[in-house]
Design a protein that fits this description.
alpha/beta
């Protein structure tokens, strides 16, 4: 090998190594996109957990029924309150802002969000024993894990994926993602533990979560536990604009 070729190979290897290190160090900035601003809600619940103050947008309602919602990686969940309040008038609503999102302090990570979700469920369950857990996109990974650990009454997963790790491998095929990724959100690991009625809602033209990822997750549930519904003509981010969206959620409650 000539000296010039050797230098070229060494330079390429060095650049590749730097990119791997950058992916390792800055990966969470590629997963979470915190939304700034204050929460607009009839009430705010503050969860004092670990080293953070997690803000939850609440629409209070007396009675046994509640809905806990976990949003996407760039979602201001409080914006769902008007439509959810109208669509589900008989339920108390709790929409959690992840750490670093819309007034919540701290930095998001899979482990921290999972702990926050457990704390929220336990607090809500004390007054509302019949809880539907709803997750959208990244929030489906939070929701399915929570429902495998707590007595949720229903589980609804909107644009769910089998594993964030699988999606990352597809997005960055040239990097050893399986060795670098800290937050894997492997929903398939928890699906088999779910025994409550579960509904998966997919977008026909989802440009973020491939259909086969959703279908792989669907097969991990015990037969008869889950159903899979596809909303036609919508994408990953436009699914909530469909008139079928709230209806399918409501039918699953």
């Amino acid at each position: 090998m000539s000296r010039i070729l050797w230098y070229l190979v060494a330079a390429i290897a060095a650049i590749y190594l730097v990119l791997c290190v950058a992916l390792l160090v800055f990966q969470r900035s590629l997963i979470y996109f915190p939304q700034p601003g204050s929460i607009t809600a009839p009430a705010i619940l503050t969860l004092a957990v670990d080293d953070a103050q997690v803000q939850v947008a609440v629409r209070p309602h007396d009675g046994p029924d509640a809905l806990i919602y976990f949003g996407g990686n760039a979602e201001d969940v409080s914006r769902n309150l008007p439509t959810f309040s109208a669509a589900f008038p008989d339920r108390a609503l709790y929409l959690m802002n992840y750490r670093g999102f819309s007034g919540s302090s701290g930095s998001p990570s899979e482990a921290a969000i999972a702990r926050d979700a457990l704390a929220l469920f336990d607090q809500v369950h004390a007054t509302h024993p019949n809880i539907a857990v709803v997750g959208r996109s990244l929030g489906t990974g939070v929701a399915v894990r929570l429902a495998s650990q707590r007595p949720a009454a229903r589980l609804i997963l909107i644009t769910p994926f089998n594993s964030l790790q699988d999606l990352a491998v597809r997005q960055y095929p040239m990097f050893p993602v399986k060795w670098l990724l800290k937050d894997t959100f492997e929903s398939w690991k928890y699906a088999a533990r779910i025994s409550v009625p579960t509904r998966l809602i997919a977008a026909e033209n989802d440009e973020v979560v491939p259909r086969d990822s959703t279908e792989q997750l669907y097969t991990q549930f015990t037969k008869g536990v889950a159903t899979l519904q596809v909303i036609g003509g919508v994408g990953h981010n436009s699914i909530s604009e469909s008139p079928e969206y709230l209806k399918l959620i409501g039918d699953g409650l």
